[in-house]
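Lest this sound abstract, we let one protein speak, letters for residues, whole numbers for local backbone shapes, and leave readers to judge:
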Amino acid sequence: MGMLHWLGLAFIVVLADQFTKVLVLGYYQLGGSSEVSSFFNVVRVHNYGAAFSFLAGASGWQRWFFTALAVAAIGVMLWLLRSHAGQRLFCFALACVMGGAIGNVIDRLLHGYVIDFLDFHAQGVHFPAFNLADSAITLGAACLILDEVLRVRRSK
């Protein structure tokens, strides 16, 4: 599979991420929520930081720092996709991470924050809210680890 295939996957991740965020912005006020099940809510949260709201309380410089960091990472991933287009699991992982990174960069550029809305909880303890872009990044990271484990096993 060529690089365009992987860029198409990243594009689908961006579209799905942005579509769900538009729905959340349209249907929920900041802090609003709907209970979906005993362990899951849809909420509207604005994350001014990074994962788990890291640096959310900073004075605003973090918006541009995280945007620049993501743009640099996207550049590296594009180079890696071009260099390793035949390695399916590796490229799938990169496409997921890249699509998620682009989705969150779009939020930072348009809004100044990332829109999170998936809220899982158990016994009153809530996992930090996240979005589809974060899910794609997590899936991609897990696939990168799996790809490396499989590569090491094959080399033995």
Observations:
- The two ends are 27 Å apart (CA to CA).
